[in-house]
Design a protein that fits this description.
Largest sheet: 6 strands, parallel
Oligomer: single chain
CATH class of the largest domain: Alpha Beta
Structural class: alpha/beta
CATH superfamily of the largest domain: Glycoside hydrolase/deacetylase
Number of helices: 10
Radius of gyration: 36 Å
Distance between the termini: 104 Å
Shape: globular
Bound molecules: zinc ion
């Protein structure tokens, strides 16, 4: 019996020992596998991190290129200097003339005006309508690429719409800005310069317009009217009379912002433009655009 007991006991011990050893071995193998997996994950993670770093580097390089491109584009801003210049736009020691064209672009008049300006080496300012920019984006782009300043004249030029509330002036300004940016393919571009359709002063919407000037100011947008005009919008003058209107309204002024139009029915404005330029030169005016007024970032 004793012998049997002695034989049985070791068998029982061996069985539990084997179970124990198996468990220990299992735990060790499990640990090794986990450790290996963790190491693999870490390696993959490091690779991903490296890729991200590489992506960052690529992004930085792209940004640098974008910055270089952007630095070639003049992005107007309104700072104290620009505000001061706009507030004193009709005052100047030297004789200067700003040629401004509203209500374009149009396919039959704007390109002819651009040709005259190019031949004379003059930079002008075009207050464009958003809906016409959307219709003739290539002409808007040509205006920009030839170095003229593009200002904002709202989207529709329908008084009851743009002057419905002071806020709707800003809404149309934004719509027009979007059209300009899209047309000239410069997502960063902003004009920061508005001309009220029909002018700021007077009319049935005078109070709305006055309130809108505050909203524009809060949004760092300047606005400008004119102090000289050909009256080409009246549609009743010959080109000789248009020039005479310009002479009459320029008389005695050192700094003139001349209102003209490049809408499709303003062919006479093109036809009188060279004579107007000749006259202004003879009178000693130099030509400026709003690139000479705004500040830039
Ligand atoms: Zn207009």
């Amino acid at each position: 019996m004793e012998i049997e007991i002695i034989k049985t006991k070791p068998k029982k011990v061996n069985f539990f020992t084997i179970i124990f050893v198996c468990l220990v071995l299992g735990a060790i193998i499990y640990g090794v596998i986990r450790s290996f997996q963790a190491e693999s994950k870490e390696t993959i993670s490091k690779e991903i991190t490296n890729n991200e770093v590489n992506d960052d580097v690529t992004e930085v390089n792209t940004n640098t290129i974008e910055e270089q491109k952007t630095s070639l584009i003049k992005i107007p801003i309104i700072d104290e200097v620009a505000s001061e210049k706009i507030n004193n736009i009709y005052k100047s020691e030297i004789k200067r003339a700003f040629l401004t064209f509203d209500d374009g672009p149009s396919p039959n008049v704007t390109p002819l005006i651009l040709d005259v300006l190019k031949e004379n080496g003059i930079k002008a300012t075009f207050f464009m309508l958003g809906n016409r920019v959307d219709t003739y984006p290539k002409i808007a782009k040509r205006v920009y690429e030839e170095g003229h300043y593009i200002g904002n004249h709202g989207y529709y030029h329908i008084y009851s719409k743009i002057y419905e509330t002071p806020q709707s002036v800003l809404t149309e300004y934004e719509q027009c800005e979007y059209a300009i940016r899209t047309a000239i393919e410069q997502p960063e571009y902003t004009s920061r310069l508005f001309r009220f359709p029909g002018g700021l002063a007077g009319g049935p919407y005078a109070e709305i317009k006055k309130q809108a000037t505050e909203i524009l100011k809060q949004n760092n947008i300047a606005h400008v009217d004119w102090n000289c005009l050909t009256q080409d919008s009246a549609g009743k003058y010959t080109k000789e009379q248009l020039l005479q209107n310009l002479k009459d309204t320029a008389y005695g002024k050192n700094s003139i912002v001349i209102l003209m139009h490049d809408a499709g029915d303003k062919i006479l404005t093109y036809e009188m433009l060279q004579d107007a330029i000749n006259y202004l030169r003879e009178e000693g005016y130099i030509f400026c655009s709003f690139y000479d007024i705004m500040s830039f970032k």
